[in-house]
Amino acid sequence: MTDRSHSPYRPARRGKGRKGSGAKGPAAAAAPTTPKDPARRVAYDVLRAVQERDAYANLLLPAMLRERGVTGRDAALATELTYGALRRQGTYDAILDACVDRSLASVDSEVLPVLRLGAHQLLNTKIPPHAAVSATIDLARRVIGHHRSRFANAVLRKVSVRDLDEWTAVVAPDRATDPVGHLAVLHSHPRWIVEALAAALGEAPGSADLERLLAAHNERPRVTLVAKPGRASVADLVAGGAVEGRYSPYAAYLTEGDPAAVREVRQRRAAVQDEASQLVALALTRVPVEGTDTRWLDMCAGPGGKAALLAGIAGQRDARLLAAEVQPARAGLVAGAVERSVRDAGRAVVADSTRPAWRDGSFDRVLVDAPCTGLGALRRRPESRWRRTDGTAAELAPVQRDLLERALDATRPGGVVAYVTCSPHLPETGEMVASVLADRSDAAVVRAADHLPEVPDVAAGDHVQFWPHRHGTDAMFLALLRKL
């Protein structure tokens, strides 16, 4: 679910007027000055907000870049430093822990982002070591003070004596005796996530397939656009410089540049949406239903990506989509996403789908995009791996179960439910579906892969599981159920 955390950063300082500057009197407005090294300052402020306020980098970083007027190469550097430090935080922390005289856990929370930024520059960029240390310590003097910057300088100089491969050989547990611990440090994941992903893949902890998945989480994901049905086409996006998508008939890949610069995105005729997210929604629309097919429901619609796609398809079929979202702010985002769909087929409402305002059996097609651990989107939200715990899934399970139960109740006999999570974690996916169906006799599984024939190697039994290292998408899970 989307985080709405506010950033803790302060506005850029404005310089004082100088003699001979043309200012007339003390009341004259001071001319603004450009902050020194704005890219590293932005990266530091985002990392600190993520650490201290649970902010999401994918929301905070673009907002901070816009507010501070950071563009071009500085914006690119800030993005690389921010996401690089977050993705490899586990690896860097193991290395930093070996370079401090005390436990890394005792290091001041204001100092940690400086150390992680410096480690990333030293170990995973082409920035020369002396320049990486110098620039990072210059930043440190401004954000944590001269005394603590000397400590950071000493630690980073120790880091600089080895490259990344040499350091991981030193700090990672032995692969033969502790394969989970080895992969956790090598690919920067908490141990419990390594174990959960191995189970989801059906692989041993030391398998090559698991290692490819963990490595994929640390790669920069491509930007995928969706052409909203009836409002834009893939051909429009290709004409603007994008590349046609591999699987979804509505997808195009943006090879470079800012999505906001794409005309169709500015006009809300297209949006950024992972290809797997498009396909799980599309699969729901492809399952045949007998009788009426005019009333569709998205039970957890925020922030509105799948709802917009469903509304476009519904409008082309003379159907109508009701998009429900429990949080008013997110419901506003849904309303913006579905506005001006074909025949105005989408309508957003503030509603708690676990306590529905609609009658049972009211809908022909129902989507449940359930709140989950988000382990399928670690490429895009790398900080999620550090804020989730092995107890998170257990905390979410009652809500997931309740939503799926209510979805089946809301569906008429012969109608179809799509249960979706952006997580491959078994307790949230196949095990959850099996648990719900074990207590009901009014629903049956529909083989999901039959409705996504364009995607190879996606079947997980009767369900569908996308993978970053196989499909280049988020690890979305899909189960299709027919109401009997």
UniProtKB/TrEMBL annotation:
<protein>
    <submittedName>
        <fullName>RsmB/NOP family class I SAM-dependent RNA methyltransferase</fullName>
        <ecNumber>2.1.1.-</ecNumber>
    </submittedName>
</protein>
<dbReference type="InterPro" id="IPR001678">
    <property type="entry name" value="MeTrfase_RsmB-F_NOP2_dom"/>
</dbReference>
<keyword id="KW-0489">Methyltransferase</keyword>
<dbReference type="GO" id="GO:0008168">
    <property type="term" value="F:methyltransferase activity"/>
</dbReference>
<dbReference type="InterPro" id="IPR018314">
    <property type="entry name" value="RsmB/NOL1/NOP2-like_CS"/>
</dbReference>
<dbReference type="InterPro" id="IPR035926">
    <property type="entry name" value="NusB-like_sf"/>
</dbReference>
<feature type="binding site">
    <location>
        <begin position="300"/>
        <end position="306"/>
    </location>
    <ligand>
        <name>S-adenosyl-L-methionine</name>
    </ligand>
</feature>
<dbReference type="Pfam" id="PF01029">
    <property type="entry name" value="NusB"/>
</dbReference>
<dbReference type="InterPro" id="IPR023267">
    <property type="entry name" value="RCMT"/>
</dbReference>
<feature type="binding site">
    <location>
        <position position="325"/>
    </location>
    <ligand>
        <name>S-adenosyl-L-methionine</name>
    </ligand>
</feature>
<feature type="compositionally biased region" description="Low complexity">
    <location>
        <begin position="24"/>
        <end position="36"/>
    </location>
</feature>
<dbReference type="Pfam" id="PF01189">
    <property type="entry name" value="Methyltr_RsmB-F"/>
</dbReference>
<feature type="compositionally biased region" description="Basic residues">
    <location>
        <begin position="11"/>
        <end position="21"/>
    </location>
</feature>
<feature type="region of interest" description="Disordered">
    <location>
        <begin position="1"/>
        <end position="37"/>
    </location>
</feature>
<dbReference type="InterPro" id="IPR049560">
    <property type="entry name" value="MeTrfase_RsmB-F_NOP2_cat"/>
</dbReference>
<feature type="binding site">
    <location>
        <position position="369"/>
    </location>
    <ligand>
        <name>S-adenosyl-L-methionine</name>
    </ligand>
</feature>
<comment type="similarity">
    <text>Belongs to the class I-like SAM-binding methyltransferase superfamily. RsmB/NOP family.</text>
</comment>
<keyword id="KW-0949">S-adenosyl-L-methionine</keyword>
<feature type="active site" description="Nucleophile">
    <location>
        <position position="422"/>
    </location>
</feature>
<dbReference type="GO" id="GO:0032259">
    <property type="term" value="P:methylation"/>
</dbReference>
<feature type="binding site">
    <location>
        <position position="352"/>
    </location>
    <ligand>
        <name>S-adenosyl-L-methionine</name>
    </ligand>
</feature>
<dbReference type="InterPro" id="IPR029063">
    <property type="entry name" value="SAM-dependent_MTases_sf"/>
</dbReference>
<feature type="domain" description="SAM-dependent MTase RsmB/NOP-type">
    <location>
        <begin position="196"/>
        <end position="484"/>
    </location>
</feature>
<keyword id="KW-0694">RNA-binding</keyword>
<keyword id="KW-0808">Transferase</keyword>
<dbReference type="InterPro" id="IPR006027">
    <property type="entry name" value="NusB_RsmB_TIM44"/>
</dbReference>
